[in-house]
Design brief:
Largest sheet: 4 strands, mixed
Number of helices: 3
Number of strands: 4
Radius of gyration: 17 Å
Structural class: alpha+beta
Order of helices and strands: EEEHEHH
Strand content: 15-25%
Strand order of the largest sheet: 3-2-1-4
Shape: elongated
Number of domains: 2
């Protein structure tokens, strides 16, 4: 039996229920993928899974910033600067899908 990994794409949206995905992989294969109802449901799931397999690995997708080179190229020195730029340009970044996106 290989390492079991649980990966969570955890939205930062206030009403994030439809934006939280939980995937479980074991032995190099995806075993399950589900759309979580709430952050609380994900937390409860992780506690239950950890009790069953204390050696599992969990990865949480929390994006608090962007790569340093991206910040430097745009002269961003604070988180507030980044958030301001993101509020104006994020849809363009995602549509173009250029690095680091």
């Amino acid at each position: 039996m290989g390492v079991r990994a649980i990966a969570i794409d955890w939205s930062g949206a206030v009403r994030a229920a439809h934006k939280i995905w939980v995937g479980t992989a074991e032995a190099g294969r995806l075993r399950s993928l589900w759309n979580a109802v709430s952050r609380e449901a994900v937390a409860k799931h992780l506690v239950t899974e950890a009790k069953a397999d204390p050696h599992m690995v969990v990865g949480l997708d929390f994006a608090f910033s962007l790569p340093g080179w991206f910040l430097e190229q745009r002269g961003l020195t604070t988180a507030y600067d980044l958030w301001e730029l993101a509020s104006r340009e994020c849809e363009t970044w995602l549509a173009a899908c250029e690095p680091p996106f």
